[in-house]
Design a protein that fits this description.
The chain is mainly β. 14% of the residues lie in helices and 48% in strands. Strands 1, 2, 3, 4, 5, 6, 7, 8, 9 and 10 form a ten-stranded antiparallel beta sheet that branches.
């Protein structure tokens, strides 16, 4: 049973990054393969290229629990476009058995999230999935979507996009996480 679940989870996890956050978690639980939900935080940043060839950079400190702080995310792309996170509205982390985050040891290697912020001074929203697949970061992945205030998709970095430079680092949760 363990091998079957591992195999099924490995295949399912590749599908999950293609789906919206709520759909991904609903699918996990509906097929009886809940991810190993974990506490922690992820830090890092780097650069990727979208399918359209757009150079996208990002930097972040994000917690698995929306109550914990600080949470920062900045995404930059063409023509000085940028998204600055103001509030995380949903987040979840899990340990995906197809990744090995390495050192430091962490209970998670993948963070899903959604939040609201600003783009060129106007309201905007984003959804992200970042993975830590070990050192030196060449196998770490990004999925990012940014929408403007009208709900129009402005930026899409498609699933499983590996970093062209940079590193994501999963961490155990530490401190009081309240930003004090």
């Amino acid at each position: 049973m363990g091998l079957r679940k591992s195999f099924a989870w490995g295949a399912l996890s590749k599908l999950l990054v293609l789906l919206p956050l709520t759909t991904a978690f609903f699918l996990c639980f509906s097929v009886g393969l809940p991810p190993s939900v974990a506490e922690g935080r992820m830090t890092g940043g780097g650069a990727v290229f979208s399918r359209d060839g757009i150079h996208v950079t990002h930097g972040f400190v994000l917690h698995c629990n929306v109550i914990r702080r600080p949470n920062h995310l900045e995404i930059n792309w063409l023509n000085e476009n940028s998204f600055h996170l103001e509030m995380v509205t949903s987040a979840a982390c899990f340990n995906n058995p197809i990744f090995e985050s390495g050192n430091p040891v962490s209970p998670m290697d993948t963070i899903f999230g959604r939040g609201i912020g600003r783009m060129k001074g106007a309201p905007a929203s984003a959804e992200w999935v970042f993975t830590d697949a070990g050192e030196p970061g060449v196998n770490d992945t990004v999925r990012v979507y940014v929408w403007d205030a009208n709900g129009d998709l402005i930026l899409a970095v498609t699933p499983d996009t590996r970093l062209s430079s940079g590193n994501h680092q999963a961490h155990k949760e530490s401190g009081n996480g309240r930003g004090d």
